[in-house]
Amino acid sequence: MVTASDAPSAAPGEAGSRTLACRRAASNEEIQAYYAIRKKFFVDDQGLFEASDVEPIDHDPRTIHIVAVCSPPGDVIGVVRCYPGADGVWFGGRLAVLQEYRASRLVVGRALVRTAEEMVREQGVKIFLGHIQLPTVRFFEHIGWVKVGDPQEYAGRLHQLMRPGWSRKPRLR
Ligand SMILES: CC(C)(COP(=O)(O)OP(=O)(O)OC[C@H]1O[C@@H](n2cnc3c(N)ncnc32)[C@H](O)[C@@H]1OP(=O)(O)O)[C@@H](O)C(=O)NCCC(=O)NCCS
User: Fold this and answer.
1) How far is the CA of 166 from the centre of ligand 1 (A)?
2) For residue 8, is pLDDT > 60?
């Protein structure tokens, strides 16, 4: 679990401080909040999917749905998903942080990505990839991911395949 605080000099839980915890969505409420954030960004805001962005892989028991929880008040403020592909390769995706928490001292996006990386590495995964929207490539480069090949169409839009520095390079087909 990756944690952060927006008041580094204050102990977690101290009045005026907020802490962040990134972990696998546990309760029904967290899972509902998780899907609501995905729908807001990828269906309503971006129009990447028409009515729902939920896919069969979301029902695969191996898939990991990760939430970023800000306390107080204990709300889900960001999400990311990790799922297995073929040949032991895992993918990360559906990364989103609520607008009002972006670029905050909680560094929510980076904490979510690091949690995803930790969780797949714990399972012995050697190749971890993401189909990254082109405007988000610089964010991923900033946190240590590198491009794999050239941009390609994914979900109807150009995406850049990327991997974290520790991941082996995939064989491109
Ligand atoms: C991309 C996104 C997840 C980033 O989340 P965030 O919480 O704002 O990012 P963080 O605060 O953790 O940023 C970590 C670092 O990356 C930098 N950064 C953030 N967004 C960046 C961007 N678009 N380009 C370059 N650097 C960026 C931050 O300044 C910070 O830098 P620092 O280490 O020097 O402090 C968020 O903007 C988002 O939800 N976007 C909409 C959904 C989306 O497009 N998802 C990606 C689909 S591929």
Assistant:
1) 20
2) no
Quote the distance between the C-alpha of residue 52 and its chain's center: 18
- Cα(109) to ligand 1 centroid in Å equals 6
| Closest ligand 1 atom, residue 97 Cα | 39
Residue recorded with tokens 């009045």: 15
CATH number of the domain enclosing 36:
3.40.630.30
> Is pLDDT at 160 greater than 50 in this prediction?
yes
- In testing the pocket of ligand 1, which one of 114, 137, 139 has its CB within 8 Å of the most ligand atoms? 139
- Report how far ligand 1's centroid is from the alpha carbon of 45 (Å): 17
**119 burial level (CB within 10 Å; 0-12, 13-18, 19+):** buried
Residue 1: its pLDDT value, please? 60
Q: Looking at the domain assignment, is residue 8 inside a domain?
A: yes
Note the pLDDT tens digit of each residue in 82-99: 999 999 999 999 999 999
Other C-beta atoms closer than 10 Å to the C-beta of 128 total: 23
Tell whether 7 is covered by a domain: yes
Domain count, the chain: 1
pLDDT of 104-122, one tens digit each? 999 999 999 999 999 999 9
Q: 20 lies in which domain range?
A: 2-126
User: Angle at CA 94, nearest 5°, toward 92 and 100?
Assistant: 125
pLDDT over threshold 90, residue 143: yes
